[in-house]
């Protein structure tokens, strides 16, 4: 690994209020998660777009898109896609593949978009990062306000009860010659993942922290926002949600 992969003079970011902005903007995040199952993700998007019966050339917002891999796939299905993310580095990388129907922008999910969309997807547990619960409600409201009159939104979150029951406390992963030491635990109604590794003789420590939000929590937020929860699924095949056994909590709303 080259030394310019360290984008931070201060590498212990676990105590910052915006850990997500820092960690997601470092190349190490993309290295650690480079082997995610994108085939499964593409099947999920096939199922989701078919279920929603989106119009031809529908405008889709991929909210918290990272480097845009899923935006690119949705675009390949014929949709006009905008990928939005807080990470300037990720958007800069994704923008290299932009085309007339594939757009990328730096965007805070708490803010309502200027445009209106036929569908807004917030995929793969890209929610629940904020310290203030009010920011979660702001995000729900912003998603709702960025839909057109017939639009649908999808939040794909982890099923907290399943995750906690199957939590792997410690794990070591070697990716691109870097040994990542990972610890997971639950504290203060959050699920934590501590990530430690050394690269080019420098020690790094990052902490992911996601609120342990359950279906009842989302239902309350949607009720407060005046949002109608249309359907709930428990996996990427869009099968029924079971509180203890489903791997995902997938919510469709208008």
Task: Chart the SSEs and their pairings.
Elements: H1 19-24, H2 27-32, H3 38-52, E1 59-63, H4 69-76, E2 80-85, H5 88-94, E3 102-106, E4 117-122, H6 133-145, E5 147-158, H7 160-165, E6 170-175, E7 178-187, E8 190-199, E9 202-211, H8 215-224, E10 229-233, E11 248-253
What do you see in this structure?
It holds the Pfam family Methyltransf_25. InterPro entries: Methyltransf_25 (IPR041698), SAM-dependent_MTases_sf (IPR029063). GO terms for molecular function: methyltransferase activity. Residues 60-151 form the Methyltransferase domain. The structure is a single chain. This protein has 254 residues and is α/β, with parallel strands linked by helices. It has two domains: 15-33 and 162-211, N-terminal domain of TfIIb; 38-158 and 214-253, Vaccinia Virus protein VP39 (Rossmann fold), CATH 3.40.50.150. It is 28% helix and 32% strand. It has helices at residues 19-24, 27-32, 38-52, 69-76, 88-94, 133-145, 160-165, 215-224; strands at residues 59-63, 80-85, 102-106, 117-122, 147-158, 170-175, 178-187, 190-199, 202-211, 229-233, 248-253. The strands form two sheets. The chain has a seven-stranded mixed β-sheet, sandwiched between helices. It has a four-stranded antiparallel β-sheet with strand order 6-7-8-9. The protein starts with 18 loop residues before the first helix and ends with a strand. The relative contact order is 0.15. Mean pLDDT is 89; it is low at 1-17.
């Amino acid at each position: 690994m080259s030394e310019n992969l360290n984008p931070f003079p201060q590498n212990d970011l676990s105590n910052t209020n915006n850990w997500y902005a820092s960690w997601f903007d470092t190349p190490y995040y993309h290295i650690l998660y480079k082997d995610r199952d994108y085939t499964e993700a593409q099947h999920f998007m096939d199922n989701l777009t078919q279920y929603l019966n989106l119009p031809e050339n529908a405008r889709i917002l991929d909210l918290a898109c990272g480097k845009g891999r899923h935006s690119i796939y949705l675009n390949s299905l014929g949709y006009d896609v905008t990928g939005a993310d807080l990470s300037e580095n990720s958007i800069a990388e994704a923008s290299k593949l932009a085309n007339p129907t594939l757009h990328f922008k730096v965007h805070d999910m708490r803010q309502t978009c200027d445009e209106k969309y036929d569908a807004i997807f917030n995929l793969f547990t890209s929610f629940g990062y904020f310290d203030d619960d009010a920011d979660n409600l702001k995000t729900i409201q912003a998603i709702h306000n960025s839909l057109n009159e017939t639009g649908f939104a999808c939040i794909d979150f982890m099923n907290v009860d399943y995750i906690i029951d199957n939590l792997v406390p410690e794990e070591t992963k070697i990716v691109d010659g870097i040994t990542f030491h990972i610890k997971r635990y639950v504290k203060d109604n959050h699920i934590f993942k501590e990530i430690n590794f050394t690269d080019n003789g420098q020690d790094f420590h990052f902490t992911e922290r996601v609120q342990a939000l359950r279906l009842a929590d989302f239902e309350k937020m949607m009720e407060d926002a005046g949002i109608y929860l249309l359907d709930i699924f428990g996996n990427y095949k869009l099968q029924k949600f079971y509180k203890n056994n489903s791997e995902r909590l997938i919510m469709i709303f208008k």
